[in-house]
Design a protein that fits this description.
The chain has 265 residues and is an alpha+beta fold. The chain has one domain: Jelly Rolls. It has 5 helices and 13 strands. The chain has helices at 5-14, 25-46, 93-96, 102-112, 141-145; strands at residues 17-19, 55-56, 62-66, 69-73, 82-86, 117-127, 135-138, 156-161, 172-174, 207-208, 216-220, 225-227, 236-245. A 9-stranded antiparallel β-sheet has the order 1-11-8-13-6-5-4-3-2. A 4-stranded antiparallel β-sheet has the order 7-12-9-10, with no helix packed on it. Strand 2 (55-56) and strand 3 (62-66) form a beta hairpin. The longest helix is centred in the first third of the chain and has 22 residues, at 25-46. The model has no long low-confidence stretch (mean pLDDT 96).
């Protein structure tokens, strides 16, 4: 399950490694069913009388705390669809087991150069047909920095694709080698303060990550990436698990200090 020498070289050079067919058809069917069951439960809990109120951060996107997690509703005003749930593995034992899955932990250990790894955070990313919104150019690094500035660069993310992903349904796009440039200049005109400045990115070098369901993509905190809207009739669901060297607290145990992003370029 560990990186091959070729994958180790590719990860250092390009900033990502893609493994196809890591999960089989039967396992994927079970995972999709578990995802939809969990999402339905989270929505019901969030819409019950007395549930936590929606709120908006810079940029106007809708969020809500419910089920001991943060829900990000779809960007379209009034949309009933969930775009993202973070964290989520604590809500279902089948997902909590991912943190010990050697198909994920083996490559994560090699990506981090760590003897052992543990959980940092996890996301359930839902791009519903005709509804799933884009996510502009960004690095994960600023989002990690405002929680753990000293360790933000020591986090690797594994993306398990539950559906085939291509250009039409909002596949991920990455900028190979961008992780070697350090923190990217941020877009000073963007309200949240976390997104990268597209005017300073050579998007002609981007690579579209077209994958079959069951593939896993590994990438570091400093890799520039984005995704386009889902304009198709097909879903694009993905499980994201971010690993760090063992012995460190999970993201939710760390203070969120958004003002720290201003320390970055």
């Amino acid at each position: 399950m560990r990186f091959t020498s070729a994958e180790t070289e590719r990860y250092a050079r390009d900033g990502f490694v893609l493994r196809s067919e890591a999960y089989g058809a039967a396992e994927l069917a079970e995972l999709r069913d578990a995802v939809e069951t969990l999402v339905a439960r989270v929505v019901e809990h969030a819409r019950r009388p007395g549930a936590g109120q929606e709120f908006r951060l810079a940029g106007g996107h809708r969020f809500q705390f419910s089920s001991r997690t943060l829900i990000q509703w779809e960007w379209r005003e009034g949309s009933p669809e969930i775009r993202l749930i973070e964290p989520f593995t604590h809500l279902e034992p089948r997902f909590e087991r991912f943190w010990e899955d050697p198909r994920l932990t083996g490559p994560a250990r090699d990506a981090l150069g760590a003897e052992e790894v543990c959980a940092f955070t996890c996301k359930l990313n839902l791009k519903r047909p005709r509804e799933g919104s884009e996510f502009p150019w960004h690095q994960d690094y600023p989002y990690w920095y405002v929680r753990t500035p000293e360790h933000a660069h020591e986090i690797v993310t594994a993306v398990l694709f539950l559906d085939d992903a291509g250009a039409a349904n909002g596949a991920l796009r990455v900028l190979p080698g961008s992780h070697r440039g350090g923190p990217a200049p941020r877009d000073r005109g963007e309200p949240s303060g976390f997104l990268a400045d597209p005017a300073r990115i050579d998007a002609s070098r981007e690579v579209l990550i077209e994958v079959e369901a069951g593939s896993v993509l590994f990438f570091p905190a400093l890799l520039l990436h984005r995704s386009t809207p889902n304009a198709s009739d097909r879903p694009r669901r993905a499980i994201l698990l971010s690993f760090q060297p063992s012995g460190r607290p999970r993201q939710e145990a760390l203070e969120w200090r958004p003002e720290l992003v201003n320390e970055l370029p």
